[in-house]
Amino acid sequence: MSWNQAVELVIAAVSLGSTYALLALGLVIVFGILRLINFAYGEFLMIGGYAMVALQGIAPGVPWGARAMLSVGVVIGTALVLERVAFRPVRASHGPPINLLLTSFACSTILQSLAMVLISPRSKGIQYPSVISAEIAFGPLRIAALDIVALVVSGLSLLGLVILLRKTFLGVCLRAAADDFTMTRLLGVRANRVIATAFAISGGLAGVGGILYFARIGLVRPDIGLGPVIIAFFASVVGGMESLGGALIGGFVLSFLTIGLQAVLPASALEYRDAFMFLIVIAILLFRPQGLMPGRQALESR
Amino acid sequence: MKSAIALPIRRILWLRPALVLAVILVVITAGIDLYDNVLLERILIGLFVSVVLVVGLQTFTGNSGLVSFGHVSFMAIGAYAAVLVIMPPEQKAYTLPRLTGFLTEIGLPFIPGMLLAALATAILAAVIGFPLMRLSGSAATMATFALLIITHIVLRNAEDYTRGTRTMYGLLPYTTLWMGLLWAVLAIVAGFVFKESKVGLMLRATREHPEAAAASGVNVVAVRWVAFTVSAFISAVGGALYAHFITSISPETMFMHTTFLTVAMLIIGGMENVSGAVVGAVVMTVLFEGLRAIEIWISTFRTAGGTAAGFTEVCLGVAMIVLMVLRPRGLMMGKELNWPRWLDRAVGGQSAGGEVDLR
What we know:
The structure holds two protein chains of two kinds. By secondary structure, chain A is mainly α. Chain A has one domain: ABC transporter involved in vitamin B12 uptake, BtuC (Orthogonal Bundle), CATH 1.10.3470. In chain A, 74% of the residues lie in helices and 4% in strands. Chain A has helices at residues 3-34, 41-58, 64-92, 98-119, 145-167, 169-179, 181-186, 191-217, 226-239, 244-264, 273-287, 296-300, and strands at 124-125, 135-138, 141-144, 219-220. In chain A, strand 2 and strand 3 (141-144) form a beta hairpin. In chain A, helix 3 (64-92) packs across helix 8 (191-217), helix 5 (145-167) packs across helix 6 and helix 9 crosses helix 10. Residues 298-302 of chain A have low confidence and may be disordered. Chain B has a single domain (17-342), classed as ABC transporter involved in vitamin B12 uptake, BtuC, CATH 1.10.3470. Chain B is globular, with a radius of gyration of 21 Å. Chain B has helices spanning 2-11, 16-35, 38-64, 71-86, 89-95, 110-132, 137-157, 159-162, 177-196, 198-208, 210-215, 220-246, 256-269, 274-299, 311-326, 341-347. Chain B has 16 helices and no strands. In chain B, helix 4 runs parallel beside helix 7 (137-157) and helix 10 packs across helix 12. Chain B is an all-alpha fold. At the A-B interface, helix 3, helix 4, helix 9 and helix 11 of A face helix 7, helix 13 and helix 15 of B.
């Protein structure tokens, strides 16, 4: 492998990793507060994809960027509705924590089946501006424009998230709740509002991450959510579900693993690439059960 | 005279919940068998397979409190392993032409073949579980989920043994009504005996308070490991029964959807005990079949080739959320089924206090 190829691979991995990191962050922001692994997260992406399809049908005259923003809004709305009608009642009934997990499972099935009944089991194409399929030459290097776009968009979203979490009152409440939910509530922060905010942010990240994810495949199906949700799970688990920084690192670890194994494995073993990847994930879990970047709570409860 | 009958009954008194469940299932089976309706019979066999699978999951998840998404992989491994040892050699030459070694020559009868497959799966689970059982909480859940995905990928690609993504068809329908009943009852008894055993009690203690259990001398990792192996065995039996009930299998039929359904049955019924697992399987099966009948009925009204496919899943999801809101600890609310008090008095046992609530 030449140097140029290696550099191109690294750039591809960094770009893919930034998308994965966004997806993982959306999962971790809810987990941090509710200890809920949200299986319906993949369906958030699916909803965003279908919103794009619907908007390009209804309003083809509207600029692409505006349509993308609107579809992110639709995902945020869906996340808030799910929180209100499903997660909040189950949370209020004080069952074991696994009930929330099953609720997310149920929401995932409901949304998937609704998409099948109301839209179509077959895939629909999503339009993207032609810019993203271009290749840009930097001297000897050839880089896909999509990789650069993904990197920039993820970077901006992360910046937005950091500002939200650090500089706004809601963000401070959120971080406090992720640290110690009971104490935060005792200090007078409304639980329902914090949780709804977390779901809204999760929806927003899923919306943006979804648009970037779908850009690589160009279509949406009712069952499309499984792939990204698995990526988000394992990125966050590998990185550490207690910390936002962990989700970031996990996303990059997973993308480097995917692209690295793709380059290193012989052709005959390529079909088993994902199996190898998940074996490595299990190995990481065995040696660092709290993830590569455990949060403060994890350290204390050890 | 009375005590002569009562004594042997009193000796198995602690098995009460399993006996009650077994009697109920036997009565239902006999009823359906007499009524002789093919559709009801199929539904009931399906229920028995679910009971075996959910009790298998309960043996580990219910007693240890660790949520496993990996048990359907043991179901799948058990199903494929059973097919490999049970299918007659002449049929294998046709279905699996690239098979090698002793597998090409053997074609065991159903029950020995199934037990052999389950044993092999249990050994595999013991090897896999050995490192895995050190994990707790969401790390354990995710690791078992990774296991499910790995198994799925391997089954899809090991074409010489599994036909890959193509369906493995032409399996003989060994899982009859009474065969299903037999193994459902055996699974219930096994699950119950394990729960009440010394290891089961220690495991339940680790569920409630791992540090306290460890301080009392329980080897947390070891008891979890035993449960993992036992439950993999039961799940593999369930897989073998499933394969020889549906008579065709593919990796896709034993993946996310089945995982979701078995976990849902366990939680809806109440994961802390065997009765919960069984009740959950029964309730979800009744709901599912009822909704599917409605879905088919609706489909007849939709014109232009449209179907209502998906209606069942939507309603099932909503019903699950409602049930969880109304009964957060499951339909059984943390208790085992028990027989009526007068039976206790009749056999002269102590009054039915139910089980000790560890909480």
